[in-house]
Amino acid sequence: MACHLRRLLLLFLATVVATAAPALAIFHFDFRFDTDGPFSGGMMSRHDMWRRRAAESKARDAKNSARLAKAVGKGGGEDITAADVTVTPYTHQGHWLTVGIGTPPQPSKVILDMGSDLLWTQCSLVGPTVVQEEPVYDPSKSSSFSLLPCGSKHCEEGTFTSKNCTDKRCAYENYYGVLTATGVLATETFTFGAHHNASVNLTFGCGKLTNGTIASASGILGLSPGPLSLLKQLAIPKFSYCLTPFTDRKTSPVMFGAMADLGKYKTTGKVQTVPLLKNPVEDIYYYVPMVGISLGSKRLNVPAESLALKPDGTGGTAVDSATTLAYLVEPAFTELKKAVMEGLKLPVANKTVDDYPLCFELPRGTSMDGVEAPPLVLHFDGGADMMLPRDNYFQEPSPGVMCLAVVQSPFKGAPSVIGNVQQQNMHVLYDLGERKFSYAPTQCDKL
Protein backbone atom coordinates (compact mmCIF):
# COMPACT_ATOMS: atom_id res chain seq x y z
CA MET A 1 0.00 0.00 0.00
CA ALA A 2 2.79 2.43 0.92
CA CYS A 3 4.43 1.92 -2.46
CA HIS A 4 1.34 3.03 -4.34
CA LEU A 5 0.46 5.88 -2.01
CA ARG A 6 3.93 7.32 -2.44
CA ARG A 7 3.06 7.89 -6.09
CA LEU A 8 0.45 10.40 -5.03
CA LEU A 9 2.21 13.56 -3.83
CA LEU A 10 0.17 16.13 -1.94
CA LEU A 11 2.22 19.31 -2.06
CA PHE A 12 -0.19 21.59 -0.26
CA LEU A 13 -2.45 20.33 2.52
CA ALA A 14 -6.16 21.08 2.27
CA THR A 15 -6.98 24.05 4.49
CA VAL A 16 -10.07 24.07 6.68
CA VAL A 17 -11.38 27.45 7.78
CA ALA A 18 -14.19 27.32 10.33
CA THR A 19 -17.12 29.70 10.00
CA ALA A 20 -19.15 31.30 12.78
CA ALA A 21 -21.37 28.22 12.98
CA PRO A 22 -19.30 25.44 14.62
CA ALA A 23 -20.95 22.71 12.52
CA LEU A 24 -20.01 24.34 9.20
CA ALA A 25 -16.67 24.70 7.43
CA ILE A 26 -15.26 26.08 4.20
CA PHE A 27 -12.82 23.73 2.47
CA HIS A 28 -10.06 24.90 0.15
CA PHE A 29 -8.44 22.05 -1.76
CA ASP A 30 -5.16 23.20 -3.24
CA PHE A 31 -3.20 20.12 -4.16
CA ARG A 32 -1.19 18.32 -6.80
CA PHE A 33 -1.26 14.74 -8.08
CA ASP A 34 1.68 13.20 -9.91
CA THR A 35 -0.08 10.65 -12.10
CA ASP A 36 1.48 7.63 -13.74
CA GLY A 37 1.14 7.20 -17.48
CA PRO A 38 -0.43 4.16 -19.14
CA PHE A 39 2.88 2.41 -19.84
CA SER A 40 4.98 3.48 -16.84
CA GLY A 41 7.30 0.71 -15.78
CA GLY A 42 6.49 -1.44 -18.83
CA MET A 43 8.74 -2.90 -21.49
CA MET A 44 6.53 -2.20 -24.52
CA SER A 45 8.25 -0.51 -27.47
CA ARG A 46 7.19 3.00 -28.42
CA HIS A 47 5.78 1.66 -31.72
CA ASP A 48 3.52 -0.74 -29.83
CA MET A 49 2.49 2.07 -27.46
CA TRP A 50 1.41 4.28 -30.36
CA ARG A 51 -0.62 1.51 -32.04
CA ARG A 52 -2.36 0.53 -28.82
CA ARG A 53 -3.22 4.12 -27.89
CA ALA A 54 -4.63 4.74 -31.38
CA ALA A 55 -6.95 1.72 -31.16
CA GLU A 56 -8.19 2.72 -27.71
CA SER A 57 -8.62 6.33 -28.78
CA LYS A 58 -10.96 5.15 -31.52
CA ALA A 59 -13.06 3.15 -29.03
CA ARG A 60 -13.18 6.03 -26.55
CA ASP A 61 -14.34 8.49 -29.20
CA ALA A 62 -17.00 6.02 -30.31
CA LYS A 63 -18.22 5.82 -26.70
CA ASN A 64 -18.43 9.55 -26.14
CA SER A 65 -19.86 10.19 -29.61
CA ALA A 66 -22.60 7.66 -28.87
CA ARG A 67 -23.41 9.43 -25.58
CA LEU A 68 -23.42 12.77 -27.36
CA ALA A 69 -25.68 11.53 -30.16
CA LYS A 70 -28.12 10.21 -27.57
CA ALA A 71 -28.08 13.55 -25.74
CA VAL A 72 -28.77 15.68 -28.83
CA GLY A 73 -31.08 13.16 -30.46
CA LYS A 74 -29.00 12.80 -33.61
CA GLY A 75 -27.11 9.87 -35.06
CA GLY A 76 -26.14 11.14 -38.48
CA GLY A 77 -27.82 8.12 -40.03
CA GLU A 78 -24.85 5.94 -39.11
CA ASP A 79 -24.22 3.14 -36.63
CA ILE A 80 -22.15 4.78 -33.91
CA THR A 81 -22.12 2.03 -31.31
CA ALA A 82 -18.78 0.70 -30.15
CA ALA A 83 -19.97 -2.92 -30.02
CA ASP A 84 -17.97 -3.89 -33.11
CA VAL A 85 -14.77 -2.09 -32.07
CA THR A 86 -12.06 -4.44 -30.83
CA VAL A 87 -9.67 -2.74 -28.44
CA THR A 88 -7.09 -3.52 -25.81
CA PRO A 89 -7.63 -2.70 -22.12
CA TYR A 90 -8.91 0.76 -21.25
CA THR A 91 -6.17 1.44 -18.70
CA HIS A 92 -3.60 1.76 -21.47
CA GLN A 93 -5.58 4.81 -22.57
CA GLY A 94 -5.09 7.16 -19.62
CA HIS A 95 -3.20 8.25 -16.52
CA TRP A 96 -3.88 6.89 -13.06
CA LEU A 97 -3.28 7.65 -9.39
CA THR A 98 -3.86 5.94 -6.06
CA VAL A 99 -6.30 7.25 -3.44
CA GLY A 100 -7.33 5.94 -0.02
CA ILE A 101 -10.99 4.98 0.42
CA GLY A 102 -12.70 4.58 3.78
CA THR A 103 -11.76 4.74 7.46
CA PRO A 104 -9.10 3.45 7.76
CA PRO A 105 -8.07 4.11 4.12
CA GLN A 106 -7.95 1.24 1.62
CA PRO A 107 -5.78 1.94 -1.47
CA SER A 108 -7.49 2.16 -4.86
CA LYS A 109 -5.89 2.86 -8.23
CA VAL A 110 -8.22 5.02 -10.34
CA ILE A 111 -7.91 6.25 -13.94
CA LEU A 112 -8.40 9.95 -14.69
CA ASP A 113 -11.20 10.44 -17.22
CA MET A 114 -12.18 13.84 -18.66
CA GLY A 115 -15.13 12.27 -20.48
CA SER A 116 -17.14 11.03 -17.46
CA ASP A 117 -18.06 12.40 -14.05
CA LEU A 118 -18.57 9.45 -11.69
CA LEU A 119 -15.81 8.42 -9.29
CA TRP A 120 -16.17 4.66 -8.78
CA THR A 121 -14.16 1.74 -7.56
CA GLN A 122 -14.70 -2.00 -7.53
CA CYS A 123 -16.45 -2.93 -4.33
CA SER A 124 -17.04 -6.25 -2.55
CA LEU A 125 -20.59 -5.19 -1.66
CA VAL A 126 -21.91 -5.72 -5.20
CA GLY A 127 -20.40 -9.11 -5.93
CA PRO A 128 -17.59 -10.61 -8.04
CA THR A 129 -15.06 -8.26 -9.64
CA VAL A 130 -12.26 -8.55 -12.17
CA VAL A 131 -8.67 -8.89 -11.06
CA GLN A 132 -7.03 -5.68 -9.82
CA GLU A 133 -3.68 -4.82 -8.29
CA GLU A 134 -4.90 -3.74 -4.84
CA PRO A 135 -7.32 -5.70 -2.65
CA VAL A 136 -10.95 -4.98 -3.59
CA TYR A 137 -12.43 -2.17 -1.49
CA ASP A 138 -14.53 -3.66 1.34
CA PRO A 139 -17.07 -1.22 2.83
CA SER A 140 -17.63 -3.51 5.83
CA LYS A 141 -14.11 -2.62 6.98
CA SER A 142 -14.83 1.14 6.89
CA SER A 143 -16.57 3.12 9.63
CA SER A 144 -17.44 5.99 7.24
CA PHE A 145 -19.31 4.12 4.47
CA SER A 146 -22.98 4.94 3.87
CA LEU A 147 -25.35 4.00 1.03
CA LEU A 148 -27.28 6.79 -0.72
CA PRO A 149 -31.08 6.50 -0.93
CA CYS A 150 -32.94 6.80 -4.23
CA GLY A 151 -34.32 10.21 -3.30
CA SER A 152 -30.89 11.76 -2.75
CA LYS A 153 -29.81 14.76 -4.83
CA HIS A 154 -26.91 12.97 -6.49
CA CYS A 155 -29.05 9.97 -7.39
CA GLU A 156 -31.65 12.20 -9.02
CA GLU A 157 -29.16 14.48 -10.80
CA GLY A 158 -26.58 11.90 -11.88
CA THR A 159 -26.23 11.32 -15.64
CA PHE A 160 -26.01 7.53 -15.81
CA THR A 161 -26.57 5.24 -18.77
CA SER A 162 -29.40 3.81 -16.67
CA LYS A 163 -30.45 3.69 -13.01
CA ASN A 164 -33.09 2.12 -10.80
CA CYS A 165 -34.01 1.64 -7.17
CA THR A 166 -33.21 -1.76 -5.68
CA ASP A 167 -33.87 -2.27 -1.96
CA LYS A 168 -34.03 1.53 -1.67
CA ARG A 169 -30.49 1.78 -3.05
CA CYS A 170 -29.56 4.05 -5.96
CA ALA A 171 -28.36 1.45 -8.47
CA TYR A 172 -26.71 2.59 -11.72
CA GLU A 173 -25.14 1.32 -14.92
CA ASN A 174 -22.54 3.25 -16.93
CA TYR A 175 -21.38 2.33 -20.42
CA TYR A 176 -17.81 3.37 -21.35
CA GLY A 177 -17.69 1.95 -24.86
CA VAL A 178 -15.04 -0.66 -24.09
CA LEU A 179 -16.45 -1.61 -20.70
CA THR A 180 -19.63 -1.52 -18.64
CA ALA A 181 -19.74 -0.76 -14.91
CA THR A 182 -22.62 -1.21 -12.49
CA GLY A 183 -22.99 -0.42 -8.81
CA VAL A 184 -24.74 1.57 -6.12
CA LEU A 185 -24.15 5.17 -5.07
CA ALA A 186 -22.72 5.72 -1.60
CA THR A 187 -20.74 8.25 0.43
CA GLU A 188 -17.30 7.62 1.81
CA THR A 189 -14.17 9.35 3.06
CA PHE A 190 -11.45 9.70 0.43
CA THR A 191 -7.86 10.37 1.45
CA PHE A 192 -5.37 12.08 -0.85
CA GLY A 193 -1.66 12.18 -0.12
CA ALA A 194 1.10 9.92 1.14
CA HIS A 195 2.73 11.84 3.99
CA HIS A 196 0.37 14.81 4.57
CA ASN A 197 -3.12 13.44 4.21
CA ALA A 198 -6.20 15.43 3.27
CA SER A 199 -9.56 13.69 3.63
CA VAL A 200 -13.00 14.60 2.32
CA ASN A 201 -16.41 12.97 2.06
CA LEU A 202 -17.54 12.21 -1.51
CA THR A 203 -20.40 10.52 -3.31
CA PHE A 204 -19.00 7.64 -5.35
CA GLY A 205 -19.92 4.41 -7.06
CA CYS A 206 -19.46 1.17 -5.11
CA GLY A 207 -19.40 -1.04 -8.16
CA LYS A 208 -17.96 -3.67 -10.44
CA LEU A 209 -17.23 -4.32 -14.10
CA THR A 210 -19.80 -6.42 -15.92
CA ASN A 211 -18.11 -6.16 -19.32
CA GLY A 212 -14.56 -5.33 -20.38
CA THR A 213 -11.44 -4.77 -18.32
CA ILE A 214 -9.38 -1.98 -16.81
CA ALA A 215 -6.39 -4.31 -16.37
CA SER A 216 -4.95 -3.89 -12.87
CA ALA A 217 -6.74 -0.63 -11.99
CA SER A 218 -9.60 -0.46 -9.48
CA GLY A 219 -11.89 2.18 -10.96
CA ILE A 220 -12.27 5.56 -12.67
CA LEU A 221 -12.07 9.15 -11.42
CA GLY A 222 -14.29 11.32 -13.63
CA LEU A 223 -13.34 14.97 -14.14
CA SER A 224 -15.94 16.00 -16.73
CA PRO A 225 -18.34 18.94 -16.17
CA GLY A 226 -21.04 16.49 -14.98
CA PRO A 227 -22.88 16.75 -11.62
CA LEU A 228 -21.03 13.91 -9.83
CA SER A 229 -17.54 15.09 -10.79
CA LEU A 230 -14.97 15.53 -8.03
CA LEU A 231 -14.75 19.14 -9.22
CA LYS A 232 -18.47 19.78 -8.73
CA GLN A 233 -18.72 17.97 -5.42
CA LEU A 234 -15.83 19.91 -3.88
CA ALA A 235 -16.62 23.17 -5.72
CA ILE A 236 -13.04 23.27 -7.05
CA PRO A 237 -12.88 26.43 -9.19
CA LYS A 238 -10.00 25.41 -11.44
CA PHE A 239 -7.57 22.62 -12.28
CA SER A 240 -4.64 22.09 -14.62
CA TYR A 241 -2.45 19.30 -15.91
CA CYS A 242 0.74 18.94 -17.92
CA LEU A 243 1.07 15.67 -19.84
CA THR A 244 4.50 14.23 -20.50
CA PRO A 245 4.79 12.18 -23.73
CA PHE A 246 3.61 8.71 -22.74
CA THR A 247 6.60 7.11 -24.47
CA ASP A 248 8.83 8.91 -21.92
CA ARG A 249 7.29 6.82 -19.10
CA LYS A 250 7.38 9.80 -16.72
CA THR A 251 4.72 11.05 -14.32
CA SER A 252 2.39 13.90 -15.27
CA PRO A 253 1.32 16.54 -12.70
CA VAL A 254 -2.34 17.44 -12.12
CA MET A 255 -3.01 20.56 -10.00
CA PHE A 256 -6.22 21.65 -8.27
CA GLY A 257 -7.32 24.94 -6.71
CA ALA A 258 -4.72 27.63 -6.03
CA MET A 259 -1.93 25.41 -7.39
CA ALA A 260 -3.60 25.47 -10.82
CA ASP A 261 -2.03 28.77 -11.89
CA LEU A 262 0.11 28.88 -15.05
CA GLY A 263 1.83 32.04 -13.79
CA LYS A 264 3.45 30.05 -10.97
CA TYR A 265 5.35 27.71 -13.27
CA LYS A 266 8.05 28.02 -15.90
CA THR A 267 6.76 27.70 -19.46
CA THR A 268 8.60 27.48 -22.77
CA GLY A 269 6.09 29.72 -24.56
CA LYS A 270 3.53 32.39 -23.80
CA VAL A 271 0.31 31.75 -21.91
CA GLN A 272 -2.82 32.15 -24.08
CA THR A 273 -6.45 32.12 -22.97
CA VAL A 274 -9.75 31.38 -24.73
CA PRO A 275 -13.32 31.00 -23.44
CA LEU A 276 -14.62 27.66 -22.18
CA LEU A 277 -17.87 27.01 -24.03
CA LYS A 278 -20.84 25.12 -22.62
CA ASN A 279 -22.72 22.63 -24.73
CA PRO A 280 -26.43 23.50 -24.38
CA VAL A 281 -27.60 19.88 -24.17
CA GLU A 282 -24.85 17.77 -22.54
CA ASP A 283 -21.98 17.91 -20.07
CA ILE A 284 -19.65 15.21 -21.43
CA TYR A 285 -16.88 17.48 -22.72
CA TYR A 286 -15.12 20.81 -22.20
CA TYR A 287 -15.40 22.89 -25.41
CA VAL A 288 -13.16 25.62 -26.86
CA PRO A 289 -13.87 28.02 -29.78
CA MET A 290 -11.63 26.74 -32.60
CA VAL A 291 -12.22 28.74 -35.80
CA GLY A 292 -9.48 27.60 -38.18
CA ILE A 293 -6.39 25.49 -38.91
CA SER A 294 -3.02 26.15 -40.54
CA LEU A 295 -0.18 23.87 -41.59
CA GLY A 296 2.93 25.94 -41.16
CA SER A 297 2.21 29.39 -42.59
CA LYS A 298 -0.58 28.12 -44.87
CA ARG A 299 -4.12 28.77 -43.63
CA LEU A 300 -6.35 25.88 -44.69
CA ASN A 301 -9.67 26.43 -46.42
CA VAL A 302 -11.83 25.45 -43.44
CA PRO A 303 -14.97 27.56 -42.85
CA ALA A 304 -15.25 28.68 -39.23
CA GLU A 305 -18.90 27.66 -39.15
CA SER A 306 -17.92 24.03 -39.81
CA LEU A 307 -16.03 24.04 -36.48
CA ALA A 308 -18.65 25.92 -34.44
CA LEU A 309 -20.65 24.48 -31.56
CA LYS A 310 -24.25 24.45 -32.76
CA PRO A 311 -27.33 25.46 -30.73
CA ASP A 312 -28.55 21.84 -30.88
CA GLY A 313 -25.36 20.61 -29.17
CA THR A 314 -23.65 19.15 -32.24
CA GLY A 315 -20.22 20.06 -33.60
CA GLY A 316 -17.75 22.23 -31.74
CA THR A 317 -14.24 21.41 -30.52
CA ALA A 318 -13.69 19.46 -27.29
CA VAL A 319 -10.53 19.01 -25.22
CA ASP A 320 -9.96 15.52 -23.79
CA SER A 321 -6.95 14.27 -21.84
CA ALA A 322 -7.69 10.57 -22.39
CA THR A 323 -8.24 10.55 -26.18
CA THR A 324 -4.98 9.99 -28.04
CA LEU A 325 -5.72 10.85 -31.65
CA ALA A 326 -7.15 14.21 -32.71
CA TYR A 327 -10.52 14.25 -34.46
CA LEU A 328 -11.55 16.78 -37.10
CA VAL A 329 -14.91 17.30 -38.75
CA GLU A 330 -15.37 17.62 -42.48
CA PRO A 331 -14.11 19.62 -44.32
CA ALA A 332 -11.28 20.26 -41.84
CA PHE A 333 -9.92 16.71 -41.98
CA THR A 334 -9.97 16.56 -45.79
CA GLU A 335 -8.17 19.92 -46.05
CA LEU A 336 -5.51 18.88 -43.52
CA LYS A 337 -4.94 15.53 -45.23
CA LYS A 338 -4.49 17.26 -48.59
CA ALA A 339 -2.09 19.85 -47.14
CA VAL A 340 0.03 17.21 -45.39
CA MET A 341 0.30 15.14 -48.57
CA GLU A 342 1.38 18.22 -50.53
CA GLY A 343 3.74 19.60 -47.89
CA LEU A 344 5.52 16.50 -46.60
CA LYS A 345 8.24 15.39 -49.01
CA LEU A 346 7.79 11.68 -48.35
CA PRO A 347 6.13 8.90 -50.36
CA VAL A 348 2.69 7.85 -49.13
CA ALA A 349 2.83 4.34 -47.69
CA ASN A 350 1.13 1.70 -49.86
CA LYS A 351 -0.30 0.05 -46.76
CA THR A 352 -1.59 2.12 -43.85
CA VAL A 353 -1.37 1.07 -40.22
CA ASP A 354 -4.61 0.16 -38.45
CA ASP A 355 -6.48 3.19 -37.01
CA TYR A 356 -4.33 5.72 -38.89
CA PRO A 357 -5.83 7.21 -42.10
CA LEU A 358 -2.59 8.45 -43.69
CA CYS A 359 0.96 7.13 -43.40
CA PHE A 360 4.27 7.91 -45.11
CA GLU A 361 7.34 5.80 -45.80
CA LEU A 362 10.45 7.04 -43.98
CA PRO A 363 13.83 6.98 -45.70
CA ARG A 364 15.59 3.68 -45.11
CA GLY A 365 17.36 3.62 -41.74
CA THR A 366 15.62 6.82 -40.60
CA SER A 367 13.17 7.29 -37.74
CA MET A 368 10.54 9.99 -37.48
CA ASP A 369 12.99 12.00 -35.36
CA GLY A 370 15.02 12.71 -38.49
CA VAL A 371 12.10 14.14 -40.48
CA GLU A 372 11.09 17.79 -40.47
CA ALA A 373 7.42 18.76 -40.59
CA PRO A 374 5.77 22.19 -40.32
CA PRO A 375 3.79 22.91 -37.16
CA LEU A 376 0.06 22.29 -37.10
CA VAL A 377 -1.62 25.45 -35.81
CA LEU A 378 -5.08 25.55 -34.24
CA HIS A 379 -6.69 29.00 -34.38
CA PHE A 380 -9.20 30.14 -31.76
CA ASP A 381 -11.75 32.90 -31.64
CA GLY A 382 -10.11 36.09 -30.34
CA GLY A 383 -6.72 35.50 -32.00
CA ALA A 384 -5.14 32.81 -29.80
CA ASP A 385 -3.21 30.02 -31.55
CA MET A 386 -2.08 26.57 -30.39
CA MET A 387 1.07 25.55 -32.25
CA LEU A 388 1.65 21.80 -32.37
CA PRO A 389 5.13 20.53 -33.28
CA ARG A 390 5.63 17.39 -35.35
CA ASP A 391 5.50 14.99 -32.39
CA ASN A 392 2.10 16.37 -31.36
CA TYR A 393 0.37 15.34 -34.58
CA PHE A 394 2.54 12.60 -36.11
CA GLN A 395 3.44 9.17 -34.71
CA GLU A 396 5.60 6.22 -35.80
CA PRO A 397 3.41 3.18 -35.00
CA SER A 398 5.67 0.85 -37.00
CA PRO A 399 9.40 1.17 -37.78
CA GLY A 400 9.86 3.09 -41.01
CA VAL A 401 6.27 4.38 -41.14
CA MET A 402 5.21 7.87 -40.04
CA CYS A 403 1.45 8.39 -39.60
CA LEU A 404 -0.85 11.36 -39.14
CA ALA A 405 -2.31 11.17 -35.61
CA VAL A 406 -5.49 12.94 -36.76
CA VAL A 407 -8.64 11.19 -37.99
CA GLN A 408 -12.06 12.24 -39.19
CA SER A 409 -14.88 12.62 -36.65
CA PRO A 410 -16.99 9.43 -36.76
CA PHE A 411 -20.31 10.93 -37.91
CA LYS A 412 -21.96 14.16 -38.90
CA GLY A 413 -22.55 16.27 -35.78
CA ALA A 414 -19.76 14.71 -33.72
CA PRO A 415 -17.25 17.23 -32.31
CA SER A 416 -13.65 17.77 -33.25
CA VAL A 417 -11.42 16.62 -30.38
CA ILE A 418 -8.02 17.87 -29.23
CA GLY A 419 -6.48 14.72 -27.73
CA ASN A 420 -3.66 14.07 -25.28
CA VAL A 421 -0.93 13.70 -27.91
CA GLN A 422 -1.78 17.21 -29.10
CA GLN A 423 -1.52 18.41 -25.49
CA GLN A 424 1.76 16.72 -24.56
CA ASN A 425 4.29 19.12 -23.06
CA MET A 426 1.51 21.71 -22.84
CA HIS A 427 0.37 23.02 -19.45
CA VAL A 428 -3.39 23.50 -19.76
CA LEU A 429 -5.71 25.16 -17.24
CA TYR A 430 -9.49 24.90 -16.88
CA ASP A 431 -10.86 27.88 -14.94
CA LEU A 432 -14.40 26.72 -14.27
CA GLY A 433 -15.42 29.81 -12.32
CA GLU A 434 -14.33 32.27 -15.02
CA ARG A 435 -15.19 29.86 -17.87
CA LYS A 436 -11.70 30.17 -19.39
CA PHE A 437 -9.21 27.71 -20.91
CA SER A 438 -5.51 28.65 -20.81
CA TYR A 439 -2.46 26.87 -22.16
CA ALA A 440 1.28 27.33 -22.58
CA PRO A 441 4.07 25.11 -24.02
CA THR A 442 5.90 23.62 -21.03
CA GLN A 443 8.52 20.98 -20.26
CA CYS A 444 6.07 18.97 -18.18
CA ASP A 445 8.61 16.71 -16.46
CA LYS A 446 10.27 19.84 -15.00
CA LEU A 447 7.19 21.04 -13.09
TrEMBL record:
Annotated keywords: Aspartyl protease, Glycoprotein, Hydrolase, Protease, Signal
Signal peptide: 1-20
A GO molecular-function descriptor: aspartic-type endopeptidase activity
GO CC, alphabetical: extracellular region
One Pfam family recorded for the sequence: TAXi_N
CDD domains reported in the protein's UniProt record: pepsin_A_like_plant (cd05476)
Gene3D superfamilies found in the cross-reference section: Acid Proteases
Start and end residues of each Peptidase A1 domain: 95-440
Active-site positions on this chain: 113, 320
Coiled coil: none
BP GO annotations: proteolysis
PANTHER family xrefs: OS07G0603500 PROTEIN-RELATED, PEPTIDASE A1 DOMAIN-CONTAINING PROTEIN
Homology family: Belongs to the peptidase A1 family.
Name of the protein in its database record: Aspartic proteinase nepenthesin-1-like
Origin species: Panicum miliaceum
